[in-house]
Design goal:
It is a single chain. With 538 residues, the protein is an alpha/beta fold. The chain has a single domain, classed as TIM Barrel. The protein has 12 helices and 22 strands. Strands 13-12-9-5-4-18-17-16 form an 8-stranded parallel β-sheet. It starts with 5 loop residues before the first helix and ends with a strand. Bound molecules: 2-acetamido-2-deoxy-beta-D-glucopyranose (NAG) (7 copies). The site of one 2-acetamido-2-deoxy-beta-D-glucopyranose (NAG) has 4 residues, from loops. It holds the Pfam family GH5_mannosidase.
């Protein structure tokens, strides 16, 4: 069964946003540029505020026909989405005989493919997006490229056990090249050398300049996103010297470079939103003005950055409340230690430490607030993937589902506070929750295997996914997020061609009953790549 429920929710979110848009009169402040601009915490287009829901379709440029690209963008536009996020990179290490590719990176040398199976495919996507009234977030590289060898295509273990299937190149979001591909091909060993090695930085600027100058005058480009989920580590290990400053400095360098060649478009990071509450900043916030003696009723308090003290205090508070509520409802989870007939401190509770956790302590080498305060970074980005990332320790009084929903709400809330302290717009560039029906196709970004392919109880129910999305979207809308982008779009009835991403008979990681996933059938239609999050449109 294809999952379609997202689109009902989407309609609701779009409606909610359009209601808000009507309530805000056009602003003349930034003129009426067709290019997306920012004004404080808002985006402005054509002189009006622009808030949106959008979707991810990293694979748009690899589709086989213009008609497929046209139909997909038409379907995306038809449900009310305004922004689509995609991969504007596609690196290979040898020239493939079929399919789309943008850049050959081989033994420290690069060359760019601007032919019909190269950047001209991206041209088509951008032109058609504009015709459909869609804006495109163009991601320039990826933190993730978990390939063990130089061969192309991902090998995956399918549901039911032991068969290895090889998916076509570009089927997974982490199979488009990216940072680790550069590092390997430049003869280096650490992931973070992507950010610091002069030759790699030069090559990445070179690729960036060719893409950016190609679309410098296109109003359909929403923003240049420097990288998907940039961090200190990936499949390749990190060196001993990568810190949050390494990543922040790279952002500053790249953002200034893009600004020097493109005065028109916004520039964003693409990071997950990881914070480092106690890190020194390369780009400190301006000191907050002295508080007003008596703020007028309804006037907004000045936002302050997220602090460790605040995270720990709120966490303890909500644990106390949840525990009390669970007790009252007679539902306190019996995973604690029995002390004189009462359920007392649980294992998790005892572990509750004075540590904010990896999402807030700089463990990943990312300080999203420092990055956001770089002058050339136009707005904030974060992602929400509770199947893959841990945002907070679980509260033992709650079910794992409720913990997951709550950790998403806390994550969105803290991101909103952090962005408000900087005073720039904030968008959630990707969010998703794996359902049971998608579990067999779920491949985490750092893997090439489907770890839950044989686990029939993995994943949320459809209702749980709907409820979680609804909670996260309403939290995002109420906290003034400027954009929310679902992961990921699913499209059916695509033209299949042997040797390309959309190959005959490839219907996903799970082999369909009449195919092994890679076998040739005479079926000429295919479905879009799915990492385990696809929702299908019309
Ligand atoms: C949606 O895609 C289908 C092909 O799958 C196409 O026939 C239809 O015209 C598209 N709808 C829109 C509104 O573009
Ligand atoms: C930049 O890209 C061009 C075109 O692909 C290539 O010929 C050139 O060698 C690259 N320059 C650097 C410094 O990588
Ligand atoms: C801005 O105006 C252009 C040109 O009229 C139009 O194509 C585009 O869809 C408008 N954008 C928004 C968000 O209204
Ligand atoms: C991948 O290619 C590089 C450069 O061509 C080579 O040095 C390396 O040994 C290859 N690695 C594997 C696992 O084949
Ligand atoms: C991928 O990341 C998850 C956490 O999301 C971790 O548990 C797992 O070990 C990682 N796998 C690899 C192959 O790095
Ligand atoms: C299967 O998934 C469920 C739900 O996430 C989990 O509790 C269980 O440990 C998993 N089983 C295996 C064998 O991975
Ligand atoms: C597929 O098409 C070929 C000819 O192009 C034909 O020989 C073969 O029988 C067809 N197979 C099926 C399953 O229809």
């Amino acid at each position: 069964m294809k999952d379609r429920r997202w689109f009902t929710l989407w309609g609701l979110a779009a409606l909610l946003l359009s209601g808000l848009a009507i309530a805000t009169p056009p602003t003349a402040k930034r003129g009426s540029s067709q290019f997306v601009q920012t004004d404080g915490a808002s985006f402005i287009v054509n002189g009006s505020k622009f808030r949106y829901v959008g979707t991810n379709a990293y694979w748009l440029p690899v589709l086989n026909t213009e008609q497929d690209i046209w139909n997909t963008l038409g379907n995306i536009s038809a449900i009310g989405a305004k922004v689509v996020r995609l991969w504007a990179f596609n690196d290979v290490t040898t020239t493939p005989s079929d399919g789309t590719w943008f850049q050959l990176v081989q033994n420290g040398k690069v060359s760019i493919n601007d032919g019909p199976n190269g950047l001209q495919k991206l041209d088509t996507v951008i032109q058609m997006a504009e015709q459909h009234g869609l804006y495109v977030i163009m991601t320039l590289t990826n933190n993730w490229y978990p390939t063990a060898s130089n061969s192309t295509g991902s090998s995956l273990q399918a549901r039911g056990g032991t068969t290895e299937i090889t998916l076509p190149r570009n089927y997974l979001s982490n199979d488009y090249g990216g940072m680790d591909l550069y590092v390997r091909q430049f003869g280096l060993q650490y992931h973070d050398q992507f950010y610091t090695d002069e030759k790699i930085v030069k090559a990445f600027k070179n690729f960036t300049s060719q893409v950016v100058t190609r679309y410098v005058n296109s109003p359909a480009v929403f923003s240049w996103e420097l990288a998907n989920d940039p961090r200190c580590s990936s499949t390749l290990p990190m060196s001993g010297s990568c810190t949050t400053e390494t990543i922040t400095q790279w952002h500053a360098t790249m953002a200034a470079y893009i600004r020097s060649i493109d005065p028109n478009h916004l520039i964003s990071s693409g990071n997950q939103g990881y914070m480092c509450t106690d890190c020194a900043k390369l780009y400190p916030l301006n000191p907050a003005p002295a508080p007003q003696p008596s703020p007028a009723p309804g006037s907004k308090k000045r936002s302050v950055p997220v602090s460790s003290e605040q995270i720990l205090r709120k966490r303890a508070e909500s644990r106390r409340l949840n525990r009390r509520a669970a007790k009252l409802a007679g539902k306190l989870k019996e995973d604690g230690i029995r002390v004189r007939g009462r359920w007392a401190a649980t294992a998790t509770r005892r572990q509750q430490s004075q540590e904010v956790g990896t999402a807030y302590d700089g463990s990943y080498g990312v300080d999203s607030q420092d990055i956001l305060n770089i002058p050339d970074i136009s707005f904030g980005t974060f992602q929400l993937f509770p199947d893959q990332d841990t945002y907070a320790a679980s509260d033992p009084s709650l079910s794992s589902y409720q913990n997951m929903v709550n950790s998403g709400v806390d994550w969105i809330t803290n991101q909103a506070q952090s962005a408000a302290a900087v005073g720039k717009p904030l968008i959630m560039t990707a969010f998703g929750l794996v359902t049971q029906s998608n579990a067999a196709d779920f491949v985490p970004f750092n893997m090439t295997t489907a770890p839950y392919a044989t686990n029939t109880s993995y994943g949320a129910t459809n209702q749980e996914q709907t409820d979680a999305y609804s909670t996260w979207l309403s939290t995002s809308v109420s906290l003034n997020l400027a954009g929310m982008i679902q992961y990921q779009w699913g499209q059916e009835s695509l033209t299949a061609e042997t040797g390309t991403t959309i190959s005959p008979g490839v219907t996903g990681i799970t082999p369909s009953s009449d195919s092994t996933g890679t076998s040739q059938s005479n079926d000429t239609t295919g479905v879009s790549p799915n990492d385990g999050y696809s929702s299908y449109g019309t």
